[in-house]
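queue> pop job 88
queue> type: inverse folding (structure -> sequence)
queue> payload:
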C-alpha cells in the first residue's frame, strides 16, 4: 500500500522559509543581528552618547542651572582643581593596587585548578570561587564592615593570638591606616580584593587550561628551570586571561561607589563623586565629566596591554 504524503501548512511554510533564507545568507544574518544591534545601539551607545553630551555642558554659577551650550569648562574643572585631581589619583592608585593583588593571589589558584586539580577538585574549586558571587553585593560589603570593625571578628582574633600591636602599628601608618580597619584604606583594599578576585581567577584558569602541557614538558626537557618555564612559556600564553581579569578588576574598582561609601577612610572616589554630583548636588555635567575619566583610563590601559602583546594569543 503506497503511503500518501500529507502536506501540513505549517511545515510547508517553515520549509519554504528555510529554503528562502538558505539561498540568502546575508539577509538571514542581517535579520538575525538587527534586534540585538538595535538594542545595543539604542540603550547602551545611546545612553553613553547622552552622557558624553552632558559632559560638554556647564552649570551657571549664579542660577545653578545647566547651560546647554558646548564648552570645555567642566572638563577644565575636573583636570585643574586639586580636589578633583586628588579624587582621580586616589581612585587610580586603589584600582592599580587591587588589580596587582588580585593577579598575585589568583595566579597560583588558577594554575592549580588548570594543571593539578582532579576533575572533582576542579569542580569544587569553581564552585568555591563563584560561591561568593551568588550572595548579595550589599550583604557582603556590610558583613566585611562588621568583620573589620574596631571590635569586630578580625580584631578579636588578632588580639587573641597576640597580634593586636602589629595591627595597631599598621593602622598608625599614614596613608593606609585609620581608627580601625573598617575606617582605613587598607580595609577598603581588602574588601575590593575579596569582591573582584573571582573575576581574575576565572579568566586566568580558562587561559591556563589552553596552555599545552607538552610545551612546558619540552621547556623542562631542554633544561629550563621552573622560573624560566614560567617566564618564557606559561606567563606569555596566560597573558590574555590575565589581561581580561585585570580589565574586570581595574574597571570595577574605578567605577565602584558602594564599597568606598561603606568601608574605608574619608575621601571621595570617582564613583562616589559621580553619585553625589548627579544626585545630591544636581551637577549633571560634572558627574558626566567624572564618568568619562574611567572610560579614558580603561582605553589607555587597553592600549598599553595591546602594546605589550597581551592580546596576541587570543
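queue> result:
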Amino acid at each position: 500500500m503506497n503511503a500518501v504524503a500529507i502536506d501540513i501548512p505549517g511545515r510547508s511554510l517553515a520549509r519554504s522559509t528555510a529554503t528562502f533564507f538558505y539561498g540568502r545568507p546575508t539577509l538571514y544574518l542581517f535579520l538575525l543581528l538587527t534586534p540585538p544591534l538595535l538594542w545595543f545601539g539604542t540603550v547602551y551607545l545611546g545612553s553613553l552618547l547622552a552622557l558624553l553630551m552632558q559632559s560638554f555642558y556647564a552649570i551657571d554659577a549664579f542660577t545653578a542651572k545647566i547651560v546647554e551650550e558646548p564648552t570645555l569648562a567642566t572638563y577644565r574643572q575636573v583636570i585643574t582643581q586639586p580636589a578633583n585631581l586628588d579624587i582621580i589619583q586616589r581612585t587610580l592608585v586603589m584600582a592599580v593596587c587591587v588589580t596587582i593583588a588580585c593577579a598575585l593571589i589568583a595566579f597560583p589558584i588558577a594554575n592549580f585548578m588548570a594543571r593539578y586539580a582532579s576533575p572533582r577538585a576542579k569542580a569544587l574549586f569553581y564552585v568555591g570561587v563563584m560561591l561568593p558571587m551568588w550572595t548579595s553585593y550589599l550583604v557582603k560589603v556590610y558583613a566585611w564592615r562588621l568583620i573589620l570593625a574596631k571590635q569586630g571578628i578580625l580584631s578579636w582574633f588578632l588580639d587573641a593570638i597576640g597580634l593586636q600591636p602589629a595591627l595597631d602599628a599598621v593602622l598608625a601608618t599614614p596613608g593606609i591606616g585609620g581608627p580601625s580597619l573598617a575606617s582605613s584604606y587598607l580595609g577598603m583594599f581588602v574588601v575590593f580584593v575579596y569582591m573582584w578576585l573571582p573575576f581574575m581567577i576565572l579568566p586566568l584558569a580558562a587561559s591556563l587550561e589552553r596552555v599545552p602541557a607538552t610545551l612546558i614538558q619540552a621547556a623542562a626537557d631542554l633544561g629550563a628551570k621552573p622560573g624560566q618555564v614560567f617566564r618564557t612559556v606559561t606567563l606569555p600564553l596566560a597573558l590574555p586571561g590575565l589581561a581580561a581579569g585585570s580589565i574586570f578588576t581595574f574597571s570595577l574598582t574605578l567605577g565602584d561607589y558602594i564599597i568606598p561609601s561603606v568601608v574605608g577612610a574619608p575621601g571621595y572616589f570617582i564613583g562616589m563623586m559621580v553619585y553625589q554630583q548627579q544626585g545630591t548636588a544636581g551637577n549633571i555635567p560634572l558627574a558626566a565629566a567624572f564618568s568619562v575619566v574611567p572610560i579614558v583610563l580603561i582605553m589607555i590601559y587597553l592600549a598599553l596591554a595591546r602594546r605589550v602583546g597581551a592580546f596576541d594569543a587570543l
